[in-house]
Amino acid sequence: MTELSEAMRVDFAAGVARSALAGPTGDFAGWLADCRARFHTRVEPVPLDRLDGWSVHPETGDIGHHSGKFFTVRGLDVEVAGAPVPRWSQPIISQPEIGILGILVREFDGVPHLLMQAKVEPGNVNGVQLSPTVQATRSNYTSVHGGKAVPYLDYFRDTGRHTVLADVRQSEQGAWFHRKRNRNMVVLVDEPVEVLDGFCWLTLAQVHQLLRLDDLVNMDTRTVLCCLPFSGAGLAERYPGVDGFRADLVHALDEGAATAHTMGEVLSWITEARTRHDVRVREIPLNEVTDWRWTDGRISHDTGLFFDVVGVGVTAAGREVGRWHQPMLRPRGQGLAAFLVRQVDGVPHVLMHARVEPGYFDVVELAPTVQCTPDTYDKLPAEARPEFLDEVLAADPSRILFDAVHSEEGGRFMHARTRYVVLSSDADVAADHPDYRWLAPHQLATLLRHSHYLNVQARSVLACLHSLVTPEGTP
Amino acid sequence: MTELSEAMRVDFAAGVARSALAGPTGDFAGWLADCRARFHTRVEPVPLDRLDGWSVHPETGDIGHHSGKFFTVRGLDVEVAGAPVPRWSQPIISQPEIGILGILVREFDGVPHLLMQAKVEPGNVNGVQLSPTVQATRSNYTSVHGGKAVPYLDYFRDTGRHTVLADVRQSEQGAWFHRKRNRNMVVLVDEPVEVLDGFCWLTLAQVHQLLRLDDLVNMDTRTVLCCLPFSGAGLAERYPGVDGFRADLVHALDEGAATAHTMGEVLSWITEARTRHDVRVREIPLNEVTDWRWTDGRISHDTGLFFDVVGVGVTAAGREVGRWHQPMLRPRGQGLAAFLVRQVDGVPHVLMHARVEPGYFDVVELAPTVQCTPDTYDKLPAEARPEFLDEVLAADPSRILFDAVHSEEGGRFMHARTRYVVLSSDADVAADHPDYRWLAPHQLATLLRHSHYLNVQARSVLACLHSLVTPEGTP
């Protein structure tokens, strides 16, 4: 495998900077409009017990595909010692395979471009969104099932002639998936690449500007994006003419910038959190979950909160043609994921939350400062409200650095939307608070070289935060 | 929590150097002889189905304690797709709790000393061995069961006034334990510490010299030791007057030393290995394992290979007094764990093996170049022999840099001994070999700041390799 030396890797931060500051190129709007005109899906509700190709197991109630492929909807029994709700059960998507989410990068005139894909997925609220070059399940990439070849997959399966910029397994929603992880990869190629229908080279500046629009840059893109080597040394000179918060942010991505806590402290805090929390999780038959019920061919919680498991029939037209049925998870209410940002020693820091979710591979991951579905708390006593939620909801617009609504994975989740916010704040927490720590963005970049430290919501907000190095504009 | 700054952390490598080069202090030999005279255990065989306090479950055959505490002997069903033996089952020790292994460090006249404990454990071949300051199970440290207080535990539970030098969860034997992990901690204190009976302050030089003796520095000490911050910048001046291989080793611990592969490459290799291997493991009732049988109150494999599960009755005298029964795992044959070491660009590198073991938390960990029980292969065809085994067994003594036999954990394993070898080698492997990579020792130190990268055998050999910075001598 060819790989950047550490010096070259850090140096690629210069490429990232060139790409993030690039001027407009190509007719992105025209390409997107064309894709939108040609690629679409029609989605209709279908009762869960009448999905073609899927069946409800007569004994367990589990919902699985006849082939044994894709995923299974099962039950999860969860015990979290000492938590406000110390035990519950719920439906969960069981999909233990590790897929690949990969973005191909190539330099044009010295400016790295990302090969993005216009992809329609049934759960999207608006049809086409921008996805990574490759979204492949393990079945896809091992060709176990002899399915249709995934375009560009070989660049990620055989990296020998290329340069791997990022390669790490990361978790997905721990409240909805049990131990779901994908391999997040960024591969730099130095050879001509055929651009297939539905694909387009974009600069990071373009992707960053698109991130400010609602429901366009999909979840898989956001999580891979944030693994790009944004941090480095001597970054200020890479971003000439940048000032204000943008300059502060560039400084905060510099590995030499001051930090509220050392990496040793941060790692020890994570070790302590992962040791302290006693979380016991086991998959159970779906018909053994309590407080959930089948009604009209879907599964809902008795309170009407959390999510429903629903069935859909999909008709896709365009590049990917087909008709299929599948179960999906449809959240109740819009999510919120917010970073509180505060200057510490002149360096913007992000308040990270050590969060337990039942589906995590390793007990606790670092989540955004606030991550919840706000509507849920309207029906609960005031003391149940998440910390810092009210600060985010009541924030003066002048303090909001980033604010957009994005979609979660459209292949599993139906109209799952989250408001992503980055908020300038004066909040503080005790330096030895068990659940919160202020981290500098370059520390988050260090953690992202390893698996399972940042959860998918944190990775999404971090991609949004990174996007602020790019000036506003029309891609 | 007080924590070293990164600069101070690196600077503590200077303390490590002072401690590793310290001259003899105190009457260690006298203290050890005194402990050996006073602390001992008597161990007698007891049939597994006649262990006081333990019972064989009438349906599952699992062997558990009446209290539900300690550990359970269960079965493990293992599938490793594509492996020479793609499916097997075996007995396994199930102990999912995370305990604490901690060494307390204090500077005397500027030289860090480690508070070591003389501890007898029933599985030891020779009674007393040197253990960390604290070996505590989760039941001990959460006081759930109101047991006897563990001395010095508070230094590791409440680190607020102290300095955490290392704090990371690491796996133990993946062939014998299912998902067993301990939290490895090193805590630096700056206040007087009472030295209780059976405890003694030792310099790193003393511990390093003791590592060259057989069966004295126990497994828990070795794994915590190797997490000390050995690597740093500008190390050469920290080790004045050091020459030959010792000087090369100091250079290899310097974070600026050249490497055969970048950390990005190493991390991508690990990600690839953890994604490529399809390992499915589930606990099953002990009486469902195949090819194992109960004979004369113990459980053995039909071939007589691998290990036996045996019962013992223990009578302990000295500081820890008591009588108890327990099951133990007794390996057949002595193990071998060896590092092949080779100069790459003038820097000694270690050949690491990406190894699958069924009990690992995360599929693959980095193991020594060779890790096996050599006798096993006398009964198997030549092509089954592990790579590099013959090079180690036939090595000319002039190439052997380290060679000692150490005991594995004496609380669970009966007379489990492993020969630890560091061997200078001319071996080479393809740069893109899927299973092997040459890593510089400072890269191993970087990986050791995170959980689950190096297996327990690799951590033991690494502690032995580190010990070579200390001149030979009598502690």
UniProtKB/TrEMBL annotation, chains A, B:
- Domain (dTDP-4-dehydro-6-deoxy-alpha-D-glucopyranose 2,3-dehydratase) spans 27-228, 264-465
Q: Which Pfam families match?
A: Hexose_dehydrat (PF03559)
Domain of life, per UniProt, equals: Bacteria
GO MF assignments? lyase activity
User: What name is this protein filed under?
Assistant: NDP-hexose 2,3-dehydratase
Organism source for this protein? Actinokineospora globicatena
Q: What is the lineage of its organism?
A: Bacteria, Bacillati, Actinomycetota, Actinomycetes, Pseudonocardiales
